[in-house]
């Protein structure tokens, strides 16, 4: 199994997972042309995608989903609440409720409920019979359900959205600071690192920090928090960039 990030941050998110002949895209927050360009950077054509999984209806996750699905006939898996929250209905929509497990080609996908200010938002864990990858962004706090489902991972893409002090001192109006920092907002660096520590993933090969706020975070602050909390090597951590994403990562 391998995975890559097309881009990550408040201006668009999309992650790609591949095992054997199966390609699954998680979210698509970029316009169609930009999505095609970013897929090409990874050596993938849109027609190779077997499914698009959607975590929730916020535009940084769904902007390009409807057109990509329609143009290339790709089925879209999402919760009923997410489907209802979309501005443009999707013809090829398949409901995948939180807690469900689904076989998609070579990959088993588990949908996990998360606390976030959207309709029934979910995140996903992938299993190819050997290795487990977790993708976990857009959640305000760790829940027991999250801690239960994101165990024994071989790779994890986790949100490190903001630095608490930068958010407090930053330019957002009070209501937005409260929303972002609240229990249905986004994980800050400290919360994200503490969550990973609680997962006790001894076999973790890749840890990728994602969905960093351009206004309220800096990659070096996020990295340092994880180094301090986990005692890991700073060079081992990776940060998914808004523009560059992250190249293919092989889970051996
Ligand atoms: Zn988001
Ligand atoms: Zn969101």
Short description:
With 252 residues, the protein is an alpha/beta fold. The chain has helices at residues 32-41, 59-62, 65-72, 80-85, 144-149, 164-169, 174-181, 189-199, 219-230, and strands spanning 2-7, 14-19, 22-26, 51-53, 76-78, 93-95, 101-104, 107-113, 122-127, 132-136, 155-159, 206-210, 238-239, 246-250. Helix 8 runs parallel beside helix 9 (219-230).
Task: Explain how this protein is built.
The protein is α/β, with parallel strands linked by helices and 252 residues long. The protein has a single domain, classed as Ribonuclease Z/Hydroxyacylglutathione hydrolase-like (Metallo-beta-lactamase, Chain A), CATH 3.60.15.10. It is 28% helix and 26% strand. The protein has helices spanning 32-41, 59-62, 65-72, 80-85, 144-149, 164-169, 174-181, 189-199, 219-230; strands spanning 2-7, 14-19, 22-26, 51-53, 76-78, 93-95, 101-104, 107-113, 122-127, 132-136, 155-159, 206-210, 238-239, 246-250. The strands form 2 sheets. The chain has a 7-stranded mixed beta sheet with strand order 6-5-4-3-2-1-14. Strand 7 (101-104) and strand 8 form a beta hairpin. The longest helix is centred in the last third of the chain and has 12 residues, at 219-230. The mean pLDDT is 97. The chain binds zinc ion (2 copies). One zinc ion binds next to helix 2. It holds the Pfam family Lactamase_B_2. This is Phosphoribosyl 1,2-cyclic phosphodiesterase.
Keywords:
single chain, 252 residues, alpha/beta, Metallo-beta-lactamase, Chain A, 7-stranded mixed β-sheet, 9 helices, binds zinc ion, RibonucZ/Hydroxyglut_hydro, Phosphoribosyl 1,2-cyclic phosphodiesterase, Metallo-B-lactamas, WalJ/YycJ-like
